[in-house]
């Protein structure tokens, strides 16, 4: 439609992202997160993560997640964690797009789906 193959979607709503995703400092309804699309296919997803233990505890409460179940995770932030983030790329998706494969299972060494759980 716009004549481009690659685009990025920024700032997803807080309700649809994990509790550990940093809120947008300009609008708490949104997050510091993104997805990267190539030819209409999502190839990566990423975000800045919450790095302050107090904020993390509040986000756990908002998400109705038991802090006890993530005690060690939350405790790891007590020693000081720098601001951080990252992204995960779907390598099989990239291979599928660049090779023109008809199905992502053709691009995975050991594909899994509801009908195939073992090699």
UniProtKB/TrEMBL annotation:
Per the similarity annotation, which family is this?
Answer: Belongs to the class-II aminoacyl-tRNA synthetase family. Type 2 subfamily.
Output the GO biological process annotations, alphabetical, semicolon-separated: aspartyl-tRNA aminoacylation
Source domain of life: Eukaryota
Segments forming domain Aminoacyl-transfer RNA synthetases class-II family profile: 1-119
Q: What is this protein's name?
A: aspartate--tRNA ligase
Q: Which Pfam families match?
A: tRNA-synt_2 (PF00152)
- Where would one find coiled-coil regions in this protein? none
Write out the GO MF terms. aspartate-tRNA ligase activity; ATP binding; RNA binding
- Which PROSITE patterns does the UniProt record give? AA_TRNA_LIGASE_II
Keywords assigned by UniProt, alphabetized = Aminoacyl-tRNA synthetase, ATP-binding, Cytoplasm, Ligase, Nucleotide-binding, Protein biosynthesis
For this protein, the record's PANTHER family field holds: ASPARTATE--TRNA LIGASE, CYTOPLASMIC (PTHR43450:SF1), ASPARTYL-TRNA SYNTHETASE (PTHR43450)
Query: What does the record give as EC number?
Result: 6.1.1.12
